[in-house]
Amino acid sequence: MRFQQLPSSVPDRDRDCHGCVFVAGRNESSGDARFRAAQENGRHFEQALAASQRVLKVWLTHADPKTMLLPDRIPGGALA
Fold it and tell me: How far is CA 22 from CA 26, 32, 45, 48, in A?
C-alpha cells in the first residue's frame, strides 16, 4: 500500500497539514490534483484501517478472558 504524493506545485505549507481534508468547495470534476491525491490517500487509509481492525479482532479472540491481556503469539500460528 502506497500513499500518493502531492504534486510539486503544492506549497510546503499545504503539505504539512496533518488531518486536513481538502473537500470544501471542491469536487472530482474540478480537475484539482490535490483533491484527487487526497481522495486516493483516503481510500488507502480506509483499506489500512479495515485490515488493522481485522487483525485486532483475531488477536482479541485469543485474549485472556479475565485480564484481556494478549498473548505474545497466537496458539497454533506459524511461529508458535
Answer: 8, 10, 15, 20
